Amino acid sequence: MNQFGGESVTYEGIGATKKWERIESYGPKFVENIVQAIARDILCYAMKTLRHCSIVMHIHDELVIEANPRMSLDAVCELMGRTPPWADGLILEAAGYTSLYYKKD
């Protein structure tokens, strides 16, 4: 049993002590990691669609890009909202804003 009263799984890996040890985990933690991995793969696919933009940085699910001023925000959002071929049926939508400098919106 884990601290939440459910079943737990253990595996060996590098723990909080930075040493090889047995680590305990549970289902929701595995789901969280899977979801984050898929979100990262979708972001990488979106980054590939922005061939004509310079990616300055990315923060979690956000990209900061430099683009030609003639490129519209709607065009950038359309490119980023494209569904990867391996995720057929997944509905994505991107939103953004333009600014002369980075700011957390």
Automatic annotation (TrEMBL):
Upper taxonomic lineage: Bacteria, Pseudomonadati, Pseudomonadota, Gammaproteobacteria, Aeromonadales
Species of provenance: Ruminobacter amylophilus
SUPFAM superfamilies: DNA/RNA polymerases
Protein name (record): DNA polymerase
UniProt xrefs under InterPro entries: DNA/RNA_pol_sf (IPR043502)
Domain of life the protein comes from: Bacteria
